Amino acid sequence: MDRHAFSRLVSAIYDGAIDVALWPQTLGLICETFGFRKGTIDLNRVPDMTNLFNFHHGIDREQAVTMVSHYRGMPEVWGGIAATMTRAIDRPWIVSRIMSQEALLQTAYYRSWVEPMGLVDGAAIVLARDDSLFGSIRLATDSRRGIIDDTLVDALTLLLPHCQRAARISGLLDVSRSDAQNFRAVIDAMSVPIVLVSADCAVVYANVCAQAILEDGAMLMLRHGRLASPVQGLQHAIQKTIRQLAENETDIPGKGIGMAVRGTDNSAHTLHLLPLVSGALRPKLAEDAVAAIFVSNAAGDRSHAPDVFKSIFKLSDTQIRVLEHVVAGKSTQQIGAELGIASSTVRTHVLHLFQKTETHCRADLVRLAHALAKPVMD
Question: What's phi and psi for 286, nearest 5 deg?
Fold first, then answer.
């Protein structure tokens, strides 16, 4: 996909995290870029399914009412309710790859909604599916675009983590109260800790809840006016991520859900980063800030520690596997035997891990891995 077009889409998505009224325009841009005829986005607060927002593109009011009346049958085309609650959400779902054409023709949802609209195939990006948020973006092609191919799946896969991150931040913000023109007042009113930082990690602003975390100092702290951490390696990971984000928001590390961190007091949280550099809206929100860091309780969040490590520190697949064995407490000889490589090669990989993560020994590397690992859930 053209880099300029992709950057434009990502910017629109992150603007929507702050001002959800921009989502119809963003949906239109997604449909125009990829050739979808129709698009829908919704995000709901769990467990009562309170709707935070719901927008359409290419669907008029009468069609929207008709579509809602058929919602109960929608899970059929995605393989059933059980499948929609268990299928991985790190890739887009494609109707034609989930159901055969013959099976699709038998579903009530297809006969009552899809076929009359002249639609051919569908894609879904699941924005959130946990005990705090549930929502998705659903896109449909007609005969002009036809069946969704590998190229389109790959493009949507690149877009997916940015959509998930924007939705998560919208969920942390009270979108019913959010006012893009008075962003500082909005974050001051939030019970979620929010820190605005510059490219060199200087703290531009922190709301009251964030100030309490910084003063506590168990996970994040202020050091000479800059965001720091007492957790070995975590400060480097955050600084490296902020630098990457300031340079190119389309390449934010992680999978869109957040970076799970554990403080020196064993408290678990998740950091969600919202870039503020690009777009029509975000650069105007806070002078000198390149990112807003949202700190949520980890209880309802999911984290992908290997993905975070790999993307932040630019680790190879082999280095990730070596890291996992190091964290498991295995010796150089054991790692070599399990991976089928020489002990000298293992030592070389471990040295590269030290260099890339700015740690100095295996114990430091293990502490960093635990600090960024998925919190233990009861």
Answer: -150, 115
